[in-house]
Amino acid sequence: MGFNKVLIENNFSGGRFGDYIREIIIHTYGGPGRSLWNWFNSAAAQVSAHYASFLDGNGEQYVEEWNTAWHAGVWEVNTRSIGIEHQDNGNPGDSWRTPEQYRNTAEMCASLCLRFNFPATSGTISPHNRYVQKVCPGGLSIERIIAETNQILAPPIPDNLYKVFINGNQIGAFSGKDNAFNAWYTNINSSTIKFNGNDVTQDFTNIMNILQQQVNDLTSQVSLISGQLSDITSQLTKSKSDNENLTKQNIDLVNQLKALQDQEIKLVDENSLSVGRLIGLLIIKFLNAIGRKSKQ
Ligand SMILES: [Zn+2]
């Protein structure tokens, strides 16, 4: 693939004469690859092209792009274009070419479109016979070259979606695996799922089994925790009840203590009274004794 640079010394004009590259002219020729170099380089030829694309997928470059090659047969077309020759089987009118040749040409066309900023259309990739009465480029398909060039310029978006099918009919395409899983799981008995064209239903079934196991484990754990919660609640209730009983006992004890204190005060009072009386009696006795003594 590609184009090997083997520049010729004759049959081209230096520069673009005020014009600029905005078109590709497609040609066909019979004969082996290197025969073109010999012909284009000989002063007698008076013709040339920038590139040649061979049937085996290889190619050659004969003229620098910034120079004007002599290929279109019309000077104004030459100054604005790149000429690409295409090897054929000697019968240019038939459509026998190779995929490798089309591919190599398309890659060069895409490169030119990108570097010189013009689109790949039927207006910019032209058959030689658009400008002169000739068979060239014969059975070569300009449409195919344009199509393959555009494929390279704008490659289709890769198919990296998860596609869900029910009974063989696609019901959705998802970039996210979890969304695809949900769509598949909703119709689990009748659906299959493909990624990039491959059936990945078994992968999703494996994921589902793992998830199911996790759900089972979690359910067991929830059950266990529920039991523990129930036990703790019972213990709390019992503690509360014990606490209430203790508080009640405490109040009773405080009351009993108060009653005892009252009794004690009462006893002390009675005691004080008795002491007072005793002293009184002693005084009376004492006075009586004195009285008796003085009477004697
Ligand atoms: Zn031609």
Quick summary:
This protein is of the alpha/beta class and 296 residues long.
Overview of this protein structure:
- This protein has 296 residues and is an alpha/beta fold.
- Among the domains are: 150 residues, 3-Layer(aba) Sandwich (Lysozyme-like); 38 residues, no CATH class.
- The chain has 6 helices and 13 strands.
- The strands form 3 sheets. Strands 1, 3, 4, 5, 6, 8 and 9 form a 7-stranded mixed beta sheet that branches. A 4-stranded antiparallel beta sheet has the order 11-10-12-13, with helices on one face.
- Strand 5 and strand 6 form a beta hairpin.
- Helix 3 packs across helix 4.
- The chain is rod-shaped, with a radius of gyration of 56 Å.
- Bound molecules: zinc ion.
- The site of zinc ion (ZN) has 3 residues, from loops.
- Zinc ion binds next to loops.
Give the CATH topology of one domain. Answer: Lysozyme-like
Report the count of strand segments.
13
Main sheet attributes: strand count, strand direction, barrel closure: 7 strands, mixed
Strand content: 15-25%
- The separation of the N and C termini measures 168 Å
Helices and strands, in order, run as EEEEHEEEHEHEHEEHEEH
Question: pLDDT average, as an integer?
Answer: 92
Radius of gyration: 56 Å
Helix content: 40-55%
CATH architecture assignment name of one domain:
3-Layer(aba) Sandwich
Q: Any low-confidence stretches, pLDDT <50, length ≥5?
A: none
Shape: rod-shaped
Name of the CATH first level of one domain: Alpha Beta
Please write out the topology.
Elements: E1 4-5, E2 12-13, E3 23-26, E4 29-30, H1 34-41, E5 51-53, E6 59-61, E7 68-69, H2 75-80, E8 81-88, H3 99-116, E9 125-127, H4 142-153, E10 162-166, E11 169-174, H5 177-186, E12 191-195, E13 198-199, H6 201-295
Parallel strand pairs: 1-6, 3-8, 3-9, 4-8, 5-8
Antiparallel strand pairs: 2-7, 5-6, 10-11, 10-12, 12-13
